Amino acid sequence: MKVCIYGVGAIGGFIGTRLALAGECAVSAVARGATLAALQQHGLRLRQGEMLHNAPVRASADPAKLGVQDLVVIAVKGPALAAVAASIAPLIGAHTLLLPAMNGVPWWFAAGAPALGSEPLHSIDPGGHIAAALPLAQVVGCVVHASTFTPEPGLVQHKMGQGLIVGEPLGGVSERVNMLAGLLQRAGFDATTATDVRRDIWFKLWGNMTMNPITAITGATVDMVLDDPLTRRFCTAAMAEAAAVGARIGCAIDQSPDDRQQITRKLGAFKTSMLQDVEAGRAIELDALVAVVHEMAQRLGLATPMIDALQRGGIDVDVSTNIQKDIWFKLWGNLTVNPISALTGATTDRILDDELVRGFISSVMLEAREIGARVGIPIAQMPDDRHQVTRKLGAFKTSMLQDVEAGKPVELDALVTVVKELGELTQVPTPFTDALLGLSRLHARVHGLY
């Protein structure tokens, strides 16, 4: 059987090496740069514990040199998929199976959910070009449950798990899915078949869509994320929003967020794949994990304020006889842009140019505005009015961003923690302020600044 691995990273290299070692497949690979050089020199390499496995592979940067395959395993990062789709045609024949072993929601997902309409999911397949290049009739859905990483190009280190779930994209059972599961089982994987693989994809996403971006934003491992009560509460709220989306598209979740978080805790001080990508300077898969959930919710008419917030992880005041009002008004303008700039490294213009981040900021400011009204410090402005004032600063670095860059402690308590406390005293719910505080505090702790 001719098998090509398109993208020999941590997962692609893992699958390719196992298949090559099993002896049933002639394995080839499409790779570039240092990975291609390593494959041509050493072949496929997989380290499990202290044992290093080697397997031969025919590697090329040009798919045309490898020819039509029986199976193509697509194991690239989401941002690279459009380029893969544009060059993959020489590998695909009339009977070629396409197995995307990738994170998040795949480009074909909406085909099994009539409630989402007939348009492609633009956040992951703008213009439908990926769907046009990768025929749905030849796709087999896949969910990967394994932790691997690449300590150097072409070398895969296996940490834990070897589960693969495969199934027909539109559901049901088929001979080809059973054949593929058997091939993977004989290669040493815990491969199972699913009668509705979309539900398995959604369930994995439901657990990953918060942990991955939050660890990437803060630099924290998953245990640190779950140990922070505000961050954990933010995760729970975002997961509840995603569960509501799933219920509308035939992917109901029967677990609670707390149940899922208890499973995640068992991973210990685990670095998510997105955190590893950030540390390695690689592009992150935010669209397939978060932006696509936001897009689906919009199509379904569901509000997802926490997911929206997750997606986009000095002021002159007139002299007054009411200094308390002046202090509160300045804080109202600063309590969002300061910590968000520290979290993201963005200047204020970039923060306000992002629609979702601006919406999150407005939600925090509305909470603080209500608190002010209850303690006798009403604010006449609305958040949008304040944003227009802040925009005049241009590409401005907040004091908190400057502190982070200089390795100085950050002033979270006087800007954000106090608003949360005042919310409790005045009985004003502050879910957005809590989320901002949780993420900012965790980021600062990870970097020794709080």
3D structure, described in words:
With 450 residues, the chain is of the alpha/beta class. The chain has 19 helices and ten strands. The strands form two sheets. It has a five-stranded parallel sheet. Strand 8 (141-152) and strand 9 form a beta hairpin. Helix 15 (355-374) crosses helix 18 (412-426). The model is unreliable at 314-321 (pLDDT under 50).
Quick overview:
The protein is α/β, with parallel strands linked by helices and 450 residues long.
Number of helices, counting only DSSP H or I runs of 4 residues or more: 19
Shape: elongated
Biggest sheet: strand arrangement: 5-2-1-6-7
Percent of residues in beta strands? 5-15%
Largest sheet: 5 strands, parallel
Average the pLDDT over all residues and give the rounded result.
93
Total E-strand runs:
10
Q: How far apart lie the N and C ends?
A: 56 Å
Order of helices and strands: EHEHEEEEHEHEEHEHHHHHHHHHHHHHH
Decide which structural class fits the backbone: alpha/beta
Low-confidence stretches: 314-321
- Percent range for helical residues? 40-55%
Reconstruct the topology from this structure:
Blueprint: E1 2-6, H1 10-22, E2 26-30, H2 33-42, E3 44-48, E4 51-55, E5 58-60, E6 71-74, H3 81-87, E7 97-100, H4 129-133, E8 141-152, E9 155-167, H5 175-186, E10 190-193, H6 197-218, H7 222-227, H8 229-248, H9 257-265, H10 273-280, H11 286-300, H12 305-311, H13 323-344, H14 348-353, H15 355-374, H16 383-391, H17 399-406, H18 412-426, H19 431-446
Parallel strand pairs: 1-2, 1-6, 2-5, 3-9, 6-7, 9-10
Antiparallel strand pairs: 3-4, 8-9
